[in-house]
Batch of 3 targets.
Target 1
Amino acid sequence: MNVLLTTEGTYPFSGGGVSTWCDTLIRNTPEVRYTLLPLMMNPHVDLKYAPPPNVRRVLEVPMWGIEEPAEFLTDIPFASLYERKQRTPSSAIEQEFLPAFRAFLDAILIADADALGASLVAMEDYFRERDYGATMKSRLVWTAFAERLEAHGRELARTHAAGARCIPSLFDLTECLRWLFHFLVVLNARPPRVAVTHTTAAAFCGIPCITAKLRHGTPMVLTEHGVYLREQNLFLSRFRRLFFAKHFLLSLITAVVRANYRFADVVAPVCHYNTRWEVAHGTPREKIEVIYNGVDPDRFTPGPRPDGPPHVVATARIDRLKDTETFLRVAARVRETHPSARFTIYGAVSDEKYYEDCLALRRDLGVDVTMGSATKDVVAAYRAADVVLLTSISEAFPFSVIEAMSCGRAVVASDVGGVGEALDGCGVVVRPRDVEQFAAEVRRLLDDAPLRARLAARARAKVMEHFRVDASVAAYLDLYRRLGGGQALLPVPLPPEDRQECLSSMETA
């Protein structure tokens, strides 16, 4: 069976929970041949994972950092790309593209998922023959875009408390069209026809799955890890832009999210928490199937803790969503009563500016917290901990929590996403950013070794019963079988030429 797996800012070019999930799924399903379609921030990112041989092809789609979007279409000769540009006169843009583009804008502004899907297919069809860059940079597209958004701004101003701020400025219009230029570049990709498509987020990476559903009836699976719409709302809450630009970006994201929910045959969130967002945005409950993340309990096993002072550990990248600042403040509060306690954050730096802010806060607090790099032995990191601490403000069903549980460690974590589902009865959840409560719970566990042992034993038992990787993978294979027409999934080695194609694409990356 052939499956198209789409990602956005994650596998195989970045670390994190989604990438761990992707790599685990692919490596444990040799019966399936995957085509990967990763949306990348730019074409110059380094490969973090070397996909296994059952990844037949990687169709890289850089959203930024390229002069011409056609550059990433490696399967088309340069001469053909040049000819496409010549076959994109103003008359073609006006007659063939603008009707679909105007319908797309209308669908965004009224959040009509069906209309959005139809317009995406029409624009994708157009870009099969015409040049993306020449079209999207044309004066005709600019004029149509400005006219529609200015009209929307006037309509909004009549009813919105923001009044005149709803009228887009030249800056607003320029920024908004620039975003569209980059976000829609995925329409220029050419994924193959497959048995099933599988998107790892209700985001722009789901667009090829939506168009395949509408064009060929290809079954679509959506695995929602973090709630994309919630995380974008968190991001936009600190987004220092003019009112209209922020309004447009949120409208665009909301429309794309709802279209993913609308056209997916099965929405498979990694925890029940996500379902409240999915249902609120139009997903029928009957097509939601929760599939928890799983870990290998034979790898993540309990082990003796090395001798030394009390140790609190986090395995999380340095990122605003992980709220490293709260971890630092908790460390400072705990050290007031437990001066010998050690604090370590194992995780790469994903936001350099935020890392600098955290270093400044660490100096201001006068607390010794080791941080700034990942570990090569995450199991040893968990075993070295008395308490594993997670202070995130947004999560899905984090691997760091179930890995720590599988290693038999007591966990204190933010009550976000599916964390409460994982730790119910075997760990401690705390309101996000509640420094005092975090510190109190960490102190309690450091002082009570029998309680730590009881929670650790329950946590390990819960992983064995509910959060095993083999059960998670089997659930996805069952989805592929059901949606793909019940085709037999038999391990078939790739021919040498296909294996070489996969390796070559990795080297090129």
Target 2
Amino acid sequence: MRVAVTGAAGHLGGAVVRQLVDAGASVRVLVHQDRRAIEGLAVDVHDGDLREPGVVARLVDGCERVLHLAAVISLAPEDEPLMQSVNVDGVRVVVDACRAAGVRRMVHVSSIHAFSSLPADEPVDEARGPAEPNAPAYDRTKAAGEAVIREAVEAGLDVVTVNPTAVIGPYDFRPSRMGEVFLDLYHRRMPGLVAGGFDWIDVRDVATSILAAAERGERGGRYLLSGQWRSVVELATIVETVTGVRKPRMVSPMWLARSVAPIAVGWAKLRKRRPLFTPISLVALRNHRDISSARARAVLGHVTRPLDDTVRDTFAWFRDHGMLQT
């Protein structure tokens, strides 16, 4: 089985490629810049930009399956043009290449953020509508990318979509935003916590369900991949238990966090660091608490490991890769 993977050098991509290689697949990957997540793996590396049709056409040529993971994840409003070009226009490039190459199945990795956050007090499942026009740019572009997928399915392409929640876990080379949160907790760089939470899922469990979607997903189907909802305080408590590093005792109420978030963003820019909490991320920490993966469990066999195990394995991986050194 020859499989092409976009976004292979990302956090999720590294986990997916490892599972494909372990399963004996012939893997072809598209890499734009950072190769650390796939270094040492037996894969055929293609360098290039997802937005270039010729690059993607060469990537998928002769492949039976294409796993499209590449995306721009950003909470910065100024990144909207980039998110539009990758998360929407890039999806169209991949779809066109798959159709031209006769790819048997494409798996599109979207996000929980593609769904509407309203009504906030009702469970979220695959019947939930798309992100609203006034939603953050990332949410809107992921929803628009799914619209491209629906058009492709109607035109005859076999595509399955998966929507993971917040991905955490090992193989976090760059690291991700939540990887930075974990490291800041460990190095005592986080002065306080916020009163909010989200649904967190292990990167390895998402990878397993993506491969299951390639095998067993229904053509045109969408599958929510959720893990476990935990507050930021609860997550920090798990980190404290695993590492022995005391978590911050100050917990900001959401109203206060929202009022100081713009200041925190400005301060982070001055220090040339990515802000951990922004007005947009605080919105996310108030939404999508009750998420149903019933369809994914029934069709894909989606299962998740305990969050404590994920955090423990994440810090073991950080330690093995020298990321806990001061």
Target 3
Amino acid sequence: MRNEYKYCVVVITLLFVMTACSINPAESTPSIGQNYYIDSGSGDDNNLGTSKTTPWKTLDKVSGMTFQPGDTILFKRGSSYEGSVTIQGDGTASHPITIAAYGSGNAPSFSNPRNSINNGNAMRIRGDYHIVENLYFHHCAPAVGGAVSFEQIWAVGALHVGLGNDHVIIRNNEFANNPKAIQSYSQYSLITKNYIHDINDSQAAGWLSEPYWGPIGIQLGIGNQEISFNTIENMFASGGEWGGDGGAIEIDDGRNHKDNIHIHHNTTYHNMGFLEISYWHDIAMMSSSNISIDHNVSRDYQDFVFWWAPTTNSVIQNNTIIRTDNQYTGPFDGVFFIDAPPAEIAISKNIVVTDNDLTEAIFIEGFDGGVKDVVHTFNCYWNVIDENVNLGLPFGVGEIVADPLFVDFEGGDYHLQPDSPASGWGAFND
């Protein structure tokens, strides 16, 4: 009897183990997130939208949804949408909400030429942990012209991420012919590998708001953000209050902090400046801190930086700055415009190339003398015409005036030759 009992226990135990091992974990754990498909051509809002064969049709259908963690919103390649879509709902760190493309062909395109509809935003992100990728935004509306409020300017953007909607990734998108490509109030965000180019020449002569605001590639309204590996071209407008305006990147809105911003490995060409950081002309005067600008290539009009705000613990290093294109000029024509103190900025290992068309010094003192606070060391300066460099400050430790020996300056290859006197400096040292 005792042996029979042991035998039964063993058999039952083996059966339990075999049954447990036969269960597929993937089948026992429910998947997180649903795919939703949108096709402006053959879709129907009465469809379920959960398969490629039953897609939705309109942006209104998408805007009426609140998406859940892990959901993916897929617009068909080759489709196009006019108006504005709001993506609502929170993802999580492990299960973000993704807005992307499906199928083959051109990226799905979004345009909103009417400022009266969501301030000209083609897409608005209203939730945490979103990814926006592989989309095309074009010909969105500017703000109204004239002396408009700051809020009206900050509400514009082909892609707009509102305040309190954090952990948003914007990557691998194209923005063409917009007065502003991206407006981000998203903390802990990443804006990377986007191609932003050209003004909206079909509205307001390309101005964001004439005569005071030129077009902008990326505008940040709060800190804790990263801008990297983007290409930004031709964001400028000639005329207006300043003679010319616009820029690749701006940090504005003094209602929010301007701390912990990393801008690196971007390439910018023929914008009205690389970076502007607001202070005086703002709703409130907010200082900045811990801003790093490194490994960027800039061949822009006007100054590389307009740093109006006081700052601490900030750096400008390993950038290649070409200031030989001066077809369009603004009120300041140098390289480093530093205004309000303290200007605790370490400027090092940059390569700065100018010519005799530069009307001001490389270092320009703003209205409050902050430029005297910067520490500039181990930078290379070169005037391609006659080697005459107007620095505007005494030379710092390790700084040189020398031809950096680019691989192909005229062809735009700013890598350095092996025998460069600026080896290890500039944008391509890593």
